[in-house]
């Protein structure tokens, strides 16, 4: 399940932002393989539509992809809400994306007595298609290069990093206001896009469609067949697809920009292209930064996610709540994804590749006569990263968030600073007073579990001799201490909280155990977080310098990191060796049933009743396939097209070997996994009897 991964370790509440201070928002037909120990190809192949790789496609695949080819591909692609990709696949506004992208939208339209996770959904007529409130899709229709204006504004701001970042944000807003008034841009959703960490900038204009209706969605057992055990693995058997329709003036949108379905299959070695919105990669990170992630940040994140998922699973064993189940899926997906990234960072071969490219990049920059002060960028990034190491413990283990330490201790952290805020910035204190409302904790067992996880993490990270840990545990285990704190705090009492909000020194004088603990931890967190923020601002500016150098040295020959902006990437249909054998390029529905029977029809390999006795014709149909394309979270729902711009599949995942793709692209074993176009149509024809949809996708009416 290829989605943008969760990272719950974040600040919470307007008051925390006030305390921290304001800051800017932030000629061969095979895939070319980098056979060196590292080089520019490690940066991947997520090409932009601003500078489409026309010559590269011609040289590599002998494909004449001209300006029209790229324009048509861009206009048929969509961004699905703010978290997935999608595409038009018919002239009548039919939209294709993944089941896991549509799960919340799909279940959001279910009616009383329905369970669409269990039954799936198919609208037999247009009238039965259900509008999803709040759902939108965006189509990229305008692109403008704004690099010079943005870089000039940052340069004019001087050497102060915060001033430079503020100038960047201000010029973004100015440009959006200017272009929003132009006739050809009016009515579009405008977004400033950063490439090469600031080496290039663009203004994108999106046409937003807000009348989006559900047409088809399979059952959860098919959309996420195999559950977490099969996630990021191959061979794979998942019907991870769904279909919606865009309406305009209450009628299906008529569009000439769409990908026709090609159900005839894909051939071994065939060039193939993914068009979508990869969420985030950090392939331009320096070795020093990656070592920081490897040693500190990423292991902490994996442990945090694992602990919160365990708490939710224990809670849901009795609650059986679908929304909690979806949350658990997201956590487990993130654990596996980020765990794979960590394994990649711990792989000495991959880190050696990063180090070799870094040396190549420096040498190439010197030959380009890059100014000497810019050549110090790597050293400055390393020095800043070393400072961040010293701040990591307090900035991380003591940082308040409902998902890291629970609602009550998070609120206690906020309360302890109220009197200080009242004295130093009364105007902010008045605004913050409205936040001083006793937390409404819906489930104390879950609250205790989160708090216990936080205390265990603090104990492991800070050590038993740390004053915060000693005060929190006081000779107890993390679980016992959490139970004690929850039982003895008065922060759930509205009258007690009201008194804290009206008496300036009430929080500092209170013997409430939560407040006492917060008085120890929160000042340390604030001090570390403020320093870390300043360093991070310097890092952001330095990364921008690195990005400018990268573009100066390599130009469009290497693509920028992913930023959830529209990209096209290339690859070929190709198997790979695994587990002592060979992975086939295609799986079939027969394999789905083999896996179901092999596990005795038990979850998560169970099948709904309608799937239990399939027609023989279905078994030989293709279900999923693999290719060497470069994808990441956010690419979920991306169409997989051939050289004729026909949809031959739908990306939904990568294999385990693809997970280091966050920081490096190594195509040897990296594979993207797609639902086969023929497999989607076969399921609709043989199982769901979705004749109307089959006819629309194939252009051939189904015979009764």
Give a description of the structure.
This protein starts with 13 loop residues before the first helix and ends in a 6-residue tail after the last helix. The chain is α+β, with helices and mostly antiparallel strands and 704 residues long. The strands form 3 sheets. Strands 2, 3, 4, 5, 6, 7, 8, 9, 10, 11 and 12 form an 11-stranded antiparallel beta sheet that branches. Strands 1, 13, 14, 15, 18, 19, 20, 21 and 22 form a 9-stranded mixed beta sheet that branches. It has a two-stranded antiparallel sheet with strand order 16-17. Strand 16 and strand 17 (581-583) form a beta hairpin. Residues 7-36 have low confidence and may be disordered. It is globular. It has a domain at 287-540.
Short summary of the structure?
Catalyzes the removal of dipeptides from the N-terminus of oligopeptides. Keywords: Aminopeptidase, Hydrolase, Protease, Serine protease, Signal. With 704 residues, this protein is of the alpha+beta class.
Give the helix/strand class. alpha+beta
The helix content is 40-55%
Low-confidence stretches: 7-36
CA-based gyration radius: 27 Å
Q: Give me the number of helical elements.
A: 26
Number of strands: 22
Percent range for β-strand residues: 15-25%
Mean pLDDT: 91
Shape: globular
Biggest sheet architecture: 11 strands, antiparallel
Distance between the termini: 36 Å
Keywords: Aminopeptidase, Hydrolase, Protease, Serine protease, Signal
Signal peptide: 1-25
EC number: 3.4.14.-
Function: Catalyzes the removal of dipeptides from the N-terminus of oligopeptides.
């Amino acid at each position: 399940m290829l989605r943008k991964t969760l990272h719950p370790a974040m600040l919470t509440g307007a008051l925390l932002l006030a305390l921290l201070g304001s800051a800017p928002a932030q000629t061969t037909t095979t895939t070319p393989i980098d056979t060196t120990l590292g080089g520019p190809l490690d940066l991947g192949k997520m090409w932009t539509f601003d500078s489409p790789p026309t010559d590269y496609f011609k040289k590599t695949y002998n494909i004449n992809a001209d300006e029209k080819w790229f324009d048509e591909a861009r206009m048929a692609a969509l961004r699905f809400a703010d978290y997935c990709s999608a595409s038009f696949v018919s002239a009548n506004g039919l939209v294709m994306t993944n089941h896991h992208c549509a799960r919340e939208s799909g279940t959001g339209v279910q009616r009383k007595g329905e369970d669409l996770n269990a039954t799936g959904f198919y609208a037999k007529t247009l009238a039965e298609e259900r509008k999803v409130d709040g759902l939108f899709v965006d189509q990229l229709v305008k692109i403008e290069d704004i690099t010079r204006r943005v870089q000039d504004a940052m340069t004019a701001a001087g050497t102060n990093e915060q001033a430079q970042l503020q100038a960047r944000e201000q010029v973004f807003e100015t440009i959006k206001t200017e272009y929003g008034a132009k006739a050809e841009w009016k009515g579009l959703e405008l977004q400033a896009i950063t490439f090469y960490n600031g080496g290039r900038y663009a203004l994108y204009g999106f046409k937003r469609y807000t009348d989006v209706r559900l047409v088809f969605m399979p059952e959860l057992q098919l959309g996420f067949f195999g559950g977490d055990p099969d996630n990021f693995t191959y061979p794979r058997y998942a019907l991870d697809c769904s279909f919606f329709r865009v309406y305009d003036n209450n009628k299906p949108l008529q569009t000439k920009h769409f990908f026709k379905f090609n159900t005839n299959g894909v051939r071994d070695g065939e060039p193939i292209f993914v068009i979508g919105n990869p969420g985030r990669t950090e392939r331009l990170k320096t070795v020093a930064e990656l070592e920081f992630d490897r040693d500190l940040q990423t292991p902490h994140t994996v442990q945090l996610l694992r602990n919160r998922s365990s708490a939710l699973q224990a809670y849901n064993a009795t609650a059986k709540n679908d929304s909690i189940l979806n949350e658990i899926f997201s956590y487990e997906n993130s654990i596996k994804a980020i765990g794979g990234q960590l394994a990649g960072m711990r792989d000495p071969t991959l880190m050696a590749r990063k180090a070799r490219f870094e040396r190549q990049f420096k040498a190439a920059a010197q030959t380009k006569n890059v100014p000497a002060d810019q050549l110090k960028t790597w050293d400055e990034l390393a020095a800043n990263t070393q400072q961040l190491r010293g701040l990591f413990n307090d900035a991380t283990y003591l940082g308040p968030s409902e998902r890291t330490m629970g609602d009550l201790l998070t609120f206690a952290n906020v309360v302890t600073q109220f009197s200080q805020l009242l004295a130093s910035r009364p105007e902010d204190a008045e605004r913050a007073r409205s936040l001083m409302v006793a937390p409404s904790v819906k489930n104390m067992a879950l609250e205790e579990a989160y708090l216990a996880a936080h205390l265990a993490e603090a104990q492991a990270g800070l050590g038993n001799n740390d004053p915060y840990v000693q005060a929190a545990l006081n000779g107890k285990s993390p679980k016992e201490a959490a139970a004690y704190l929850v039982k003895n705090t008065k922060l759930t009492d509205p009258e007690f909280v009201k008194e804290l909000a009206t008496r300036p020194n009430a929080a500092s004088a209170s013997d409430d155990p939560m407040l006492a603990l917060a008085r120890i931890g929160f000042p340390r967190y604030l001090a570390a977080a403020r320093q870390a923020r300043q360093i991070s601002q310097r890092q952001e500016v330095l990364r921008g310098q690195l990005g400018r150098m990268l573009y100066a040295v390599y130009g469009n020959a290497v693509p920028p990191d992913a930023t959830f902006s529209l990209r096209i990437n290339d690859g070929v249909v190709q198997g790979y060796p695994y587990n002592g054998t060979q992975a086939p390029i295609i799986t079939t529905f027969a394999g789905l049933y083999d896996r179901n029977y092999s596990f005795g029809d038990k979850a998560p390999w169970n099948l709904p009743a309608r799937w239990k006795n399939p027609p023989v014709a279905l078994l030989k149909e293709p279900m999923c396939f693999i290719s060497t394309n470069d994808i990441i979270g956010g690419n979920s729902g991306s169409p997989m097209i051939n050289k004729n711009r026909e949809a031959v599949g739908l990306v939904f995942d990568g294999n385990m070997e693809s997970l280091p793709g966050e920081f490096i692209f190594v195509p040897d074993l990296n594979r993207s996994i797609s639902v086969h176009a023929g497999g989607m149509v076969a399921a609709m024809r043989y199982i769901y009897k979705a004749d109307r949809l089959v006819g629309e996708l194939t252009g051939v009416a189904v015979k009764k």
